[in-house]
Design brief:
The complex is a heterodimer of chains A (439) and B (590). By secondary structure, chain A is mainly alpha-helical. Chain A is built from 20 helices and seven strands. Chain A is globular, with a radius of gyration of 22 Å. Chain B has a single domain, classed as FAD/NAD(P)-binding domain (3-Layer(bba) Sandwich), CATH 3.50.50. Chain B is built from 15 helices and 21 strands. In chain B, strands 1, 2, 10, 11, 12, 13 and 21 form a seven-stranded mixed beta sheet that branches. In chain B, strands 7-15-16-17-14-20 form a six-stranded antiparallel beta sheet. In chain B, α1 links the parallel β1 and β2. In chain B, α7 packs across α14. The longest helix of chain B is centred in the last third of the chain and has 19 residues. Classes of the chains: A mainly alpha (439), B alpha+beta (590). At the A-B interface, loops of A face α2, β9 and α9 of B. Chain B: This is Gluconate dehydrogenase.
């Protein structure tokens, strides 16, 4: 479902005033910018369901109150946003208010989009109106029963948690004196809406912090979405990006792979539809910005590679819980030293995904497999098969415990009950999805 | 009718290279593949992918002979019968073709391989060529092909060690190898214990061992197209398998990920091409007609350019079915389509080392090993020997799987059951190693391909007929080279040696695997009377048809064919892009 993301280069030039005056007649250039903002905002992720035309909506969001579906945002006048004026459009995106005055479900990340500049909104509007094909296709009806279907509580939610656009922009654009960091902040906090997944949420599902200025909860890791746990993007040494450098982050956002790991779950879509289309300059700005976010968890001891695991495995000492399962199923690609092979098979040693509190991602990758899709700059799709029919819950628990502990990872063990419980949120088998790219 | 600028028939190496090059040139390309889609995500899903029964034994990635096959006979006076069970050679089927199931032995050529007729005449005179042998030159030189060998290696992620680069000795590579313009993209694969033992013994015997060039990645690699390979871990599941580590080069791993991103490219699987359609003059192809094998619907496409890049004999078959060029007639010695059909000679000998030496035969990689070229091509004096051709000799430990090991235990004459068999099996698996002589096979006037007069495939078209047997020249060559293995085995400290070679009077036997390195049948050359294709692999008769593959080899060389096929594919593509597209028509005017 939801993702996070980022955005805009031409725009940077505009704000810096280095671009020639924008000619109203040059609609194509504006549309091109709008397409870039749409990619940066990853509109596709939520508004294009598999098998449906682009931007015609229909993706289901399963929430405690019922199921809601993303809407058709093509310029169709009846089923889409064809009747929206630019003001209507801006209000919906930045404030979550529909033309009829009712409030959007905050699955739409309008608290982040509140930061979008007027120019970006203008470009986005031009793109959606002039370059997206109108699709006269209704999104499925939401399945939320009365009284929860009433929208007025959403309005209360919005009053409580959604920032006013001007204030939001003001905060985001004035946190840093360095223009690159400001650019990064805008991309991450605004169109990228990274916090929608990577920030923890409060009791009313509001993000705990929408900007770097909001304290260390912001981007400190979110709850599992579709079974995948968004890790912290802050500087924790073990569970965050503390050991990633700027180039690691840029490469990850461009290709979904680097020496530290590979994307999975919703992040792969976020890269595919979004960040890979961003300019190098914008990706570096985002990376620089992320690198200044201080750790939320300040008590983590630095991860140090421990050679003991590899040396035991080399001696065929499989006495540690899960070691034999690891050798039989995992070591062919991830190696006995846990280092994998850069950008092809991700390392398990020191990988933040392994050391997080919630083991759901690990268990789910083993249960369902995963494919890193090909990107423009890295066309190879790399697939890990699922081990659903090969390993019992106990064996999955054992091997996850092993890799969480090995090579200095030292993360806590998990039980067979944990694995069994995670079956409830287990994603469908990776290869049962026909959209899995071939390679 | 749907139109494409170019139609490419067959989704193997040759087809994928041509499709990539032609889309780069801005053409819309439709690639037709008879078999199904194949992806590492599915075929390579570990650990099912290393199931020997599913893979090499039940021949998962190979042609379904129940739909189409060929008929085989040894001599012209026999009646050919259909090849109903895969054994002697294993054509691939599905996206990736033979490029998915191959081992990864990625050689260039010896310069004299390309001009063997000229080289033999220069050294020994024309009379040295036996009566009935159609010895021919390719019409292209190593110097001309070198940039394309280089290009292909950088796409394949080939591991190896050079001997000379731009004339300077740079490493302990093959002293007989032709000069290179740049190094291999990856360092050589490590020697297995058996390869190391062979290397030492060869040096001791005065030969010149070198690491075989392997399209198995010795390191992680990102190729020219941005496609990624994982490093080989010597699991041994190469030939007959889709490599789960993405470390064996294949069209699927090395080219198609990039090609599939191109909106100008369309791949249609399960599309069995029935014929290339020609205009009324029979000098211009108008398109292609294929059968959707899942729906049995016939579909015609139009195209300006048609590339035949199916497996060697399928290319020849399609030319005959489409009436491109004149079928070869061995009696009148006229026509070119089906002429110079060739194979390779291969014989696998076995050497047993003392019980203290463990050869760990489960370890291996399809392209890795140590070879000597002292008896390949024109590297030795044929004068007193009276035959043409040669063989590299190598230890190419490709990973001995359990079922194959059980089937091959003990060597010739050993017990096939009971406790003696079991002892032999264990000893052989633990302490033996294989040494192959993988050699040339010359072309002969009465060895050829044509359409079978009787048998038809599931679609009602005549099967291709193969007339092939071993000939005196090649049998003597093979025996000579195999005889050179004995002293090497001795230097290795062999406790037992079982030498295997071809024998006079033993015809080609389709029941045992030999090699899938079939060649010729639509060869390239400079004379349209003796070649089907010009030096750019363009049909002499239908100039908008190019036929890419080992079908172009006028004779079987000592090396594995894929490297030469890839270089010829890039060579042809280069001339299509730089010359043909600007002014379509024959690239060689007579």
């Amino acid at each position: 479902m939801r993702r996070l993301l980022s955005y805009v280069p031409v725009l940077a030039a505009l704000t810096l005033g280095s671009t020639p005056a924008f000619a109203q007649t040059d609609r194509d250039a504006l549309i091109k910018e709008g397409r870039y903002v749409a990619a940066a905002s990853d509109c596709v992720a939520c508004h294009t369901a598999p098998g449906r035309p682009a931007y015609s909506g229909g993706i289901a969001f399963t929430l405690p109150i019922g199921t809601i579906y993303s809407t058709n945002i093509t310029p169709d006048p009846n089923h889409g946003i064809g009747k929206y004026s630019e003001t209507d459009f801006a209000r919906a995106i930045r404030q979550g208010i529909r033309p009829d005055g009712s409030t959007l479900y905050p699955a739409m990340p309008f608290p982040s989009y509140a930061r979008l500049t007027d120019h970006d909104i203008h470009a986005l509007y031009a793109y959606f109106h002039d370059a997206v094909k109108a699709e006269p296709l209704a999104a499925p009806e939401n399945k939320v029963s009365w009284p929860l279907s009433m929208r007025f509580p959403l309005t209360l939610w919005r009053w409580a948690f959604a920032p006013a656009p001007s204030a939001a922009r003001n905060t985001t654009l004035h946190q840093f004196s360095d223009p690159t960091l400001t650019r990064g902040a805008y991309l991450v906090e605004g169109p990228g809406h990274c916090g929608a997944c990577h920030s923890p949420r409060g009791i009313s599902m509001q993000e705990k912090g929408l900007t770097a200025a909001d304290g260390s909860s912001f981007l400190s890791g979110g709850a599992a979405i579709d079974g995948w746990v968004p890790p912290s993007l802050r500087q924790e040494n073990r569970t965050g990006l503390g050991r990633w450098n700027e180039d690691d982050i840029v490469l990850f956002l461009k290709t979904g792979r680097n020496r530290q790991g590979e994307s999975f779950g919703g992040m792969s879509d976020a890269i595919k539809h979004g960040t890979q289309h961003l300019s190098e300059g914008d990706l570096h700005a985002m990376a620089k910005y992320l690198l200044v976010l201080k750790p939320a968890d300040t008590k983590q001891a630095d991860w140090v590679y421990n050679t003991q695991t590899a040396s035991s495995l080399h001696k065929a000492d499989f006495s540690e819980r899960g070691a034999k399962i690891y050798i039989d199923n995992c070591a062919a690609c991830h190696r006995t030293d846990g280092k994998g092979y850069a950008a092809v098979f991700p390392p398990l040693a020191g990988n933040p995904v392994l050391m997080g509190k919630d083991p759901a991602s690990l268990v789910h990758i083993i249960q369902s497999g995963a494919t890193l899709p090909g990107m423009e700059a890295a066309p190879s799709a790399i697939t890990m098969p699922d081990f659903r029919n090969r390993l019992t819950d106990q064996q999955v628990a054992d091997v996850v415990t092993f890799i969480r502990h090995a090579w200095g990872n030292n993360a806590p063990a998990i039980s067979q009950e944990d694995v069994a419980a995670l079956k409830k949120t287990m994603p469908e088998r990776n290869l049962s999805n026909e959209a899995v790219p071939l390679n | 009718m749907k139109h494409a600028d170019a139609i490419v028939i067959g989704a193997g190496w040759a087809g994928s290279i041509l499709a990539k090059e032609l889309t780069e040139a801005g053409l819309s390309v439709i690639m037709l593949e008879r078999g199904p889609e194949r992806s590492t995500a599915i075929e390579g899903a570990y650990p099912d992918s290393v199931d020997e029964l599913r893979g090499a034994i039940r021949k998962r990635l190979f042609q379904n002979l129940s739909q189409s096959t060929l008929t085989i006979r040894n001599t012209i006076d026999q009646t050919a019968l259909p090849y109903r069970q895969l054994a002697a050679f294993l054509p691939g089927e599905g996206v990736g073709g033979a490029g998915l199931h191959w081992s990864g032995c990625h050689f260039r050529v010896s310069p004299d391989d390309l001009r063997l007729r000229s080289a033999v005449i220069e050294k020994y005179g024309e009379k040295f060529i036996p009566e009935g042998m159609n010895l021919q030159d390719y019409g292209v030189s190593y110097a001309e092909l070198e940039p394309f060998f280089d290009k292909a290696e950088k796409v394949f992620g080939t591991s190896g060690v050079a001997y000379t680069i731009n004339g300077k000795v740079t490493g302990n590579g093959n002293v007989f190898a032709a000069d290179r313009s740049s190094d291999f993209p990856l360092p050589p694969m490590q020697d297995t214990f058996s390869a190391q033992t062979f290397r030492n013994a060869c040096s001791e015997a005065g030969y010149h061992p070198y690491a075989m060039p392997a399209a198995n990645a010795s390191r992680p690699y990102t190729n020219t197209y941005g496609c990624q390979m994982g490093p080989c871990n010597f699991c041994g599941y190469c030939s007959g398998y889709d490599c789960y580590l993405y470390s064996k080069a294949s069209p699927n791993v090395n080219i198609l990920p990039a090609l599939r991103q191109d909106p100008n490219f369309t791949l249609i699987a399960n599309a069995h091409v029935l014929r290339v359609d020609l205009d009324s003059t029979k000098t211009k192809a108008t398109g292609v007609t294929y059968l959707e094998t899942l729906t049995k619907k016939e579909v015609s496409l139009s195209a300006d350019l048609v590339i035949l890049s199916a497996f060697q004999f399928h290319n020849v078959h399609l030319m005959l079915l489409s009436k491109i060029g004149t079928p070869y007639d061995p009696v009148s010695n006229t026509g070119t389509i089906g002429r110079n059909f060739v194979y390779q000679t291969i014989s696998s000998s076995r050497v047993w080392l003392p019980p203290s030496k463990y050869t760990n035969q489960f370890i291996g990689a399809g392209g890795a090993g140590v070879a000597i070229d002292d008896f390949n091509c024109t590297n030795f004096d044929h004068g007193p020997l009276g035959f043409i051709g040669g063989s590299p000799v190598w230890v190419n430990q490709a990973g001995m799987k359990p079922i194959a090991a059980a089937g091959g235990a003990g060597g010739g004459g050993a017990p096939r059951w009971g406790s003696a068999y079991k002892t032999d099996l264990v000893e052989t698996y633990k302490h033996s190693l294989g040494i192959d002589a993988h050699g040339s096979n010359m072309a002969y006037r009465d060895v050829y391909l044509d359409l079978d007069p009787t048998w038809k495939d599931a679609y009602g078209q005549p099967l291709l007929r193969m007339t092939f047997t071993w000939k005196d020249n090649d049998i003597r060559m093979n025996q000579y080279v195999v005889s050179k293995i004995a002293p090497i085995a001795k230097a290795m400290g062999a406790t037992k040696t079982h030498l295997v070679h071809l024998n006079q009077g033993q015809p080609f036997d389709t029941r045992h695997y030999q090699t899938t390195h079939l060649g010729g049948g639509a060869v390239m050359g400079e004379d349209p009377k003796t070649s089907a294709l010009n030096r750019y692999l363009q049909s002499w008769d239908v100039s908008n048809v190019f036929v890419i593959g080992s079908n172009a080899f006028p004779q079987g060389m000592g090396y594995n064919p894929t490297g030469a096929v890839a270089a010829l594919a890039y060579w042809a593509a280069h001339h299509i892009r730089t010359t043909y597209l600007k002014s379509p028509g024959p690239l060689v005017k007579l």
